[in-house]
């Protein structure tokens, strides 16, 4: 029997859950209401449930058969600090908070899978343990390392771990699976050039940090275009430049901020070194003092090849050969599921969300998760369990 037959009857229930979570968004490490919805739903199914892992994380345990094998399935729960601009009935009720990335849908799909997996376990359709990981704080705050630090992989020993994210612009219910990098690292830099303020009509009496900042912006553009092997990928973007408050005053400092993205740890190191060298050279040549800070954020999300192939196999069983893509380009966006993949083999896949309202993409105030894909996403999780924990493997 196809797993979609297990999840399709749940569509109405899952839609109600998803829209309730959407209407009550909670930011990183504050997902108390959402976590309680998750925990109570799991407990109502008879699933062993663990609360408070990584502050507000929840883990459910579904056991089938006698095998000691185990896998983890992860969904994120947090919202974004965005004011929603939709006017449908389930729009956010919290000013300035919004589920603009679909984590409400991710959580709901895994809850749907939990319900189907309980039935599958009773029918002995898989042999092993499934850990359902409901993670807090994906949006820049590092909920994944918080759960790891709280003993996730020690308390729930699993051989591999898997994640899924909706992807606007892809056909609803289709899948994209990458073998290797799927999301980039996300690092930040802060630079302050300090000179000597002066009257704008008498620049020779000061040391202009604005000119130094401008020189840095120009030179930083060569790090990728002239410093990287053209086969490698990298992004260096200066996104903030703050200096001065008056038309006729040369300020005494200029502050610049930006981000660095790449798929490769060696390129990450190269770009950090390059930014520092350029900043130091600019400071010396322009006679200004330098304060340079480079802060590493999420590492690249890199799927292991064997697990990605198994994910593609499961996706094809649910969506069909023509709706599973293994040739899509990875994204320069970042994802803290990367920390899980540094600990365990696994893969992170995309499920198509359709064009979205107005064609808007993630982190848009008009975004909404497509409820039509809820049963498909839940079915994918169930099929992946079948694929990985069948008695023949």
Automatic annotation (TrEMBL):
It holds the Pfam family M20_dimer. Mn(2+) binds at residues 101, 103, 139, 165, 363. Residues 188-280 form the Peptidase M20 dimerisation domain. One of its GO terms (biological process) is diaminopimelate biosynthetic process. InterPro entries: Amidohydrolase, Bact_exopeptidase_dim_dom, Peptidase_M20, Peptidase_M20_dimer. Keywords: Hydrolase, Manganese, Metal-binding. The Mn(2+) ion enhances activity. Its cofactor is Mn(2+). SUPFAM superfamilies: Bacterial exopeptidase dimerisation domain, Zn-dependent exopeptidases. GO terms for molecular function: metal ion binding; N-acetyldiaminopimelate deacetylase activity. NCBIfam families: amidohydrolases. This is Amidohydrolase.
């Amino acid at each position: 029997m196809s797993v979609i037959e297990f999840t399709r009857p749940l569509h109405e229930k899952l839609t109600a859950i998803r829209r309730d979570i959407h209407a009550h968004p909670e930011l990183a490490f504050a997902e108390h209401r959402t976590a309680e919805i998750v925990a109570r739903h799991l407990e109502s199914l008879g699933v062993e449930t663990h609360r408070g892992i990584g502050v507000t994380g929840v883990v459910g345990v579904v056991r089938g058969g006698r095998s000691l094998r185990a896998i983890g399935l992860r969904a994120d729960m947090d919202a974004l600090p965005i004011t929603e601009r939709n006017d449908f009935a389930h729009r956010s009720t919290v000013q300035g908070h919004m589920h603009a990335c679909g984590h409400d849908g991710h959580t709901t799909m895994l809850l749907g899978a939990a319900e189907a997996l309980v039935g599958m376990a009773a029918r002995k359709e898989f042999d092993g343990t499934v850990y359902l990981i409901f993670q807090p704080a994906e949006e820049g705050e590092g909920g994944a390392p918080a759960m790891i630090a709280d003993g996730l992989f020690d308390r729930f020993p699993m051989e591999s771990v898997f994640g899924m994210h909706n992807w606007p612009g892809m056909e609803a219910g289709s899948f994209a699976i990458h073998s290797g990098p799927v999301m980039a690292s996300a690092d930040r830099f802060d630079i302050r050039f300090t000179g000597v303020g002066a009257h704008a009509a008498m620049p020779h009496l000061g040391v202009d940090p604005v000119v130094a900042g401008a020189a840095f912006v120009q030179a930083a553009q060569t790090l990728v275009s002239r410093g990287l092997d053209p086969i490698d990928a990298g992004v260096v973007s200066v996104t903030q430049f703050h200096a001065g408050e008056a038309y006729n005053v040369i300020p005494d400092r200029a502050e610049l901020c930006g981000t660095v993205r790449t798929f490769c740890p060696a390129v990450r190191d190269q770009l950090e070194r390059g930014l520092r060298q350029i900043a130091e050279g600019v400071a010396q040549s322009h006679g200004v003092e330098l304060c340079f800070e480079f802060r590493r954020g999420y590492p690249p999300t890199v799927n292991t090849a064997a697990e990605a192939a198994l994910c593609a196999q499961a996706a094809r069983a649910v969506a069909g050969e023509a709706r599973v893509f293994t040739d899509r380009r990875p994204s320069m966006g970042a994802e803290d599921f990367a920390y899980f993949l540094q600990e365990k083999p696994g893969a992170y896949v995309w499920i198509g969300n359709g064009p979205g309202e107005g064609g808007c993409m993630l982190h848009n105030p008009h975004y909404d998760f497509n409820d039509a894909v809820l049963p498909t996403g839940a079915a994918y999780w169930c099929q992946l369990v079948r694929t990985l924990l069948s008695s023949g493997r």
